[in-house]
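Please predict the structure of the following assembly.
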Amino acid sequence: DIQLTQSPSFLSASVGDRVTISCRASQGVSSYLAWYQQKPGKVPRVLIYSASTLQSGVPSRFSGSGSGTEFTLTISSLQPEDFATYYCQQLNSYPLTFGGGTKVEIK
Amino acid sequence: EVLLLESGGDLVQPGGSLRLSCAASGFTFSGNAMSWVRQAPGKGLEWVSSISNNAFTTLYADSVKGRFTISRDNSENTLYLQMDGLTADDTAVYYCAKCNTYCQYRWFDSWGQGTLVTVSS
């Protein structure tokens, strides 16, 4: 099974900050990686797929990069509505695993 | 608009069974693979199972293999998850998720609101 390790697991940031979240795969997943956002009590929604493609309707301050085993989600200027937990998911092979999540909180 | 509406979650005793349903609308159900993902209270997301658009292929996480069965009725636009031999570790919100055509190599582009399964005596 492919393990996904996200770092940090928690981060505290201010509105306007640039935020970077890392996702490392235990083996290569090519570009078959997605990022999801989940707000408290809400349903996950896809932000980025195929490592770097922005889902329709997602603000352009979100971006994704990487391939193989190293991936990054970047929020260029954190907004109040971005405080949430973020998960990466590999879709290269079954089982389709998720990272442990990164909770972004207000400083 | 894509809508996925789960139902069937309940309180069940250890060793019991439950069947979850997910009613889909707003897209061509028979053209998309589907998945179940669960989230234990205060925990992260865990993929549970996926099924191809024509139901020919089903896949399971090791944690549920042999106990859970995924199925679908394309004539009714409904996805199912039959859960047998439930344990406390199965306590979670269960989400139905639409794969973008396929699950492997693609992504989960829509999620239902979830249904809560609680396994306790």
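Chain A touches chain B at residues 1, 32, 34, 36, 38, 43-46, 49-50, 55, 87, 89, 91-101 (CB under 8 Å). Chain A has no helices and ten strands.
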